[in-house]
Design brief:
heterodimer; A: mainly beta; Folate-binding fold; four-stranded antiparallel sheet; two-stranded antiparallel sheet; 1 helix; 6 strands; B: alpha/beta; D-Amino Acid Oxidase, Chain A, domain 2; eight-stranded mixed sheet; 10 helices; 25% strand; globular
Chain lengths: 116, 416
């Protein structure tokens, strides 16, 4: 289970939060002009990387505020949480532990799920 | 040479101390070029190679697997097989698979231990009852054996179940007698052995790293054992399918999440059917070794850690103990997670894509094991003929543009 650092309330147990999927998804401009395919991509397709991932959480059983997060999906390590109006951090600032696209990280899964 | 298994081969090998069993498949070094490369050596992938060789006469085929055969979700599921899906498209697909299961042990001459002990889906409230009765009727119209069980009938079948004294009482269930469980490794090994006999190269410890394309046509795949050229590539990599698709510049509507399961210490036979409940999220069957095989849910967030969150198991165990109070003092032996790729409509994708020669069989989410032979069969057809089989034509990628989804989220009576 994760410990998530809510930017408003501090570190709390994951069971207080709900996941909101990919962050920074932009609704396409000109929704009248774009075709079914582009619209379908916006509605149905979300990034699903193995490694660094921008995602949204909401502190459902706490302050009920939404915030963003960068998490490594190969280890579940949460690298940073930040408020919605903050700029999204550059992923190059973080070390990716996945050496090949579908490979496994050296340190086994789940070992980052507790606070260091 | 065709390997035959029988009571006589068992006796003969017992006398020689089980030291002379032949290897079930070769372990060849990869060749430079293949007509078809299947990425993913689980049941679906090996089955695809098997049907490509058997039904479509293709010989120059390779299956590449980053770990060992059946070491992914094929070896991590709770082995439940059923076909009682609501929508026609799904019902036809899963029923096709169930029919193949029924004959698979004799077709492969390898015991996949398919045990048709029946599958029950419990109703816990008024809405469940309506939904399940509707599904039972839909199943009957599709020629699938499925009927409604009253609470009394459930108690007769599963006397250990606590039907009344719990937060969400058991009010009835759907029941599919032809459903059941099978041995998960056996399906991978059986398909692998028979595919290998027809000349399919099965290459383990060979990780696919990048799918290479040129002018919209497939070139081959970069692997940990070098670059392999191919005319066609079928990606059947479950949770990692999206990662591989991305390497070819294709975005798939998939989200990868851990799905957990656990087994208890072995006990004497106590439950002789499969009981599933999506409302309280607990499903259980008993393995031939006597362990209770318990299925839990997926985590709410994307992850590739084959482990999953503890709160998920906690929820499932809570429901289990309420439904079967006598399991309360049992010990659990093992817990694990597998990475499942979930589609927005909880239905699979068995489809070609914009790149010529690139095919995907993915999005099976939390329920792919039951579909193994059927999925492999229609995927082989799709690859060989460059067009879908009638059965999988609805499960294409275009549905996410047309909006013709096959929405099996709640309808399949299993929590996703």
């Amino acid at each position: 289970m994760l410990i998530i650092n809510c930017p408003y309330c501090g570190p709390r147990d994951q069971s207080e939060f709900s996941n909101g999927g990919e962050a920074h998804v932009k609704r396409p401009d000109g929704s009248k002009e774009i075709g079914d395919r582009e619209w379908g991509e916006y509605v149905f397709i979300r990034a699903n990387p193995k490694g660094l991932f921008y995602e949204r959480w909401v502190h459902t059983h706490g302050c009920r505020k939404w915030f963003n997060c960068v998490r490594d999906t190969s280890t579940d390590e949460i690298l940073v949480t930040y408020k919605l109006d903050e700029k999204k951090p550059n992923l190059n600032n973080f070390k990716s532990v996945v050496k090949t696209p579908s490979g496994e990280p050296e340190v086994g899964s789940g070992n980052f799920t507790v606070e260091k | 040479m065709k390997k035959k298994y029988s009571i006589f081969s068992l006796a003969r090998n017992a006398l020689s101390g089980h030291k002379e069993w032949p290897k079930m498949w070769r372990s060849p070094e990869p060749r430079e070029f293949y007509d078809v490369i299947i990425i993913g050596g689980g049941g679906h992938g090996l089955g695809t190679a098997y049907y490509l060789a058997k039904e479509h006469g293709l010989k120059n085929i390779a299956v590449i697997e980053k770990g060992w055969l059946g070491g992914g979700n094929t070896g991590r599921n709770t082995t439940i097989i059923r076909s009682n899906y609501l929508w026609d498209d799904s019902a036809h697909l899963y029923e096709h698979s169930l029919k193949l299961w029924e004959n698979l042990s004799s077709e492969l001459n390898y015991n996949v231990m398919f045990s048709q002990r029946g599958v029950m889906n419990l109703a816990h409230n008024e809405h469940d009852i309506k939904e399940i009765k509707r599904r039972v009727s839909a199943n009957n119209l599709n020629g699938i054996d499925s009927f409604w069980l009253s609470k009394e009938e459930i108690r007769k079948k599963v006397p250990i179940m606590n039907t009344d004294n719990l937060r969400y009482p058991v009010l009835g269930a759907s029941y599919q007698p032809r459903g059941g469980v099978a041995r998960h490794d056996a399906i991978a090994w059986g398909f692998a052995m028979r595919a290998d006999e027809m000349g399919v190269d099965i290459i383990q410890n060979c990780e696919a790293r990048q799918i290479r394309t040129k002018n919209g046509t497939i070139e081959g795949v970069e692997t940990s054992k070098g670059f392999l050229r191919a005319n066609k590539i079928g990606v059947v990599a479950s949770g990692h399918t999206g990662v591989l698709a991305e390497s070819a510049g294709i975005r798939l509507p998939l989200q990868s999440k851990p799905l957990q399961a656990l087994v208890s210490e072995p006990i004497k036979p106590i439950i002789d059917t499969v009981v599933m409940s999506s409302a309280v999220h607990a499903y259980v069957s008993q393995s031939d070794k006597g362990e209770l095989v318990i299925g839990a849910g997926t985590d709410s967030y994307n992850s590739f850690t084959q482990r999953g969150g503890f709160n998920i198991i906690e929820d499932t165990i809570r429901a289990m103990v309420e439904l079967y109070p006598l399991f309360g003092k049992m010990k659990m032996l093992r817990q694990w997670g597998g990475i499942v790729d979930i589609c927005p409509d909880a239905s699979p994708i068995i489809s070609k894509c914009d790149i010529e020669g690139l095919f995907f069989n993915c999005g099976w989410g939390t329920g792919g094991f039951k579909a193994t032979p059927g999925s492999a069969n229609v995927f082989a057809h799709t690859i060989a003929k460059n067009e879908p089989h009638q059965i999988n034509s609805a499960f294409n990628l275009d549905r996410f543009a047309s909006g013709r989804l096959v929405d099996e989220h709640g309808a399949a009576a299993v929590a996703h």
